[in-house]
Amino acid sequence: MPTCKHCTAEVETEDLIRHERRGLTLVHCPDCNCLMGQYRDPSYQSPEPVESE
Ligand SMILES: [Zn+2]
What we know:
Layout: E1 17-21, E2 24-28, E3 35-40
Antiparallel strand pairs: 1-2, 2-3
The protein binds zinc ion (ZN).
């Protein structure tokens, strides 16, 4: 369970406020609204060519 570094609240991942930015998902604390982190959306289809061997 992620912990907010600003208000030290422990927040369920599903309760985080999410903002999606072109495949990058930013998560914010629902209590103090500070940025808690960011990660790449696994469902995002990258426009970069995939090398195949
Ligand atoms: Zn917080």
